[in-house]
């Protein structure tokens, strides 16, 4: 069963415009900041919200067609949802929570319980069957909620920030479980998340939504390895500076008044839009312009110092945008830098990947 979606929805200060497909068994991750339209999109898929114009089609059958007057109600769409909170029925045991969907669909009590036991086993929660939700940890409750969603045999599975409410110990185990379970499903899945790690581990393809518009899409690893937009680069934990290629090989681009050299991913025409992408860990910070081995050096001002475990992320504003560098606390102390200080950010050319961009220059 494949999912096809076209939707346009306008509100006073917001507009959602989206078009995409999800193949059978494929997981599509939708990433974006708060207010991007992710929850609105899920509401359209579930039938809780009708767009101004659009069509939602599963395996050739229209759930929604605003032009043809079709709008299948939520309870008849066969949508399974795993949200941030497990939302289990507090008065039912874990087994009966999972059996609820099959039972509501007309299955006998004995058969629905057998199905529940099967799915509890699938999510490694067999021993939780007799417990009520009040006796489950957050991670355990999410396992039961996943089993409940799948036991109903949904035609479309939606995951809405499924790991956001879990603690740092429970989230990795649940992420691994989701990876195993979703690989075995033939159902199209739409995953909404803020966490790029969820997309890397779980999703086949990635769709980045900002202000209701799709700004990037494609295979997950490709999008994150070759981000075309600054927002996506920040999601991926990378620096991205956009400019114009200075030569056909594409090894050097002009970024404002600066030039940046690196390893070209593809050939680009001189003057074409291109971007330099590099990791914060590859960036060094200096008080004066560095010399010696071939380096790219950008002058800027420190905008923030963020402790991150055993490193400090130094954020700075340069002419073409912003740069992040991960340096040791000792280096920060030795440099004596504070917010608003002028510094040089340096990165070796070998650490920079130059990517062609479509749709013109990104700007800052």
Notes on the protein architecture:
GO terms for molecular function: ATP binding. Residues 3-236 form the ABC transporter domain. This is ATP-binding cassette domain-containing protein. InterPro entries: AAA+_ATPase, ABC_SmlMolc_Importer, ABC_transporter-like_ATP-bd, ABC_transporter-like_CS, Mo/tungstate-bd_C_term_dom, Mop_domain, P-loop_NTPase, Transp-assoc_OB_typ1. With 364 residues, the chain is α+β, with helices and mostly antiparallel strands. It folds into 2 domains: 3-225, P-loop containing nucleotide triphosphate hydrolases (Rossmann fold, 3-Layer(aba) Sandwich), CATH 3.40.50; 239-356, RNA polymerase II/Efflux pump adaptor protein, barrel-sandwich hybrid domain (OB fold (Dihydrolipoamide Acetyltransferase, E2P), Beta Barrel). Helix content is 24%, strand content 36%. It has 9 helices and 22 strands. The strands form 4 sheets. It has a 6-stranded mixed β-sheet with strand order 7-8-9-3-10-11, sandwiched between helices. It starts with a strand and ends in an 8-residue tail after the last strand.
Strands, helices and their partners?
Layout: E1 3-11, E2 14-22, E3 27-31, H1 38-46, E4 53-58, E5 61-65, E6 70-71, E7 79-82, H2 94-104, H3 109-122, H4 138-151, E8 156-160, H5 170-183, E9 189-193, H6 196-202, E10 205-210, E11 213-219, H7 220-225, H8 230-235, E12 239-245, E13 252-255, E14 258-261, E15 263-264, E16 273-278, E17 283-286, E18 295-308, E19 311-318, E20 321-327, H9 329-335, E21 342-348, E22 353-356
Parallel strand pairs: 3-9, 3-10, 7-8, 8-9, 15-22
Antiparallel strand pairs: 1-2, 1-4, 4-5, 5-6, 10-11, 12-13, 12-16, 13-14, 16-22, 17-21, 18-19, 18-21, 19-20
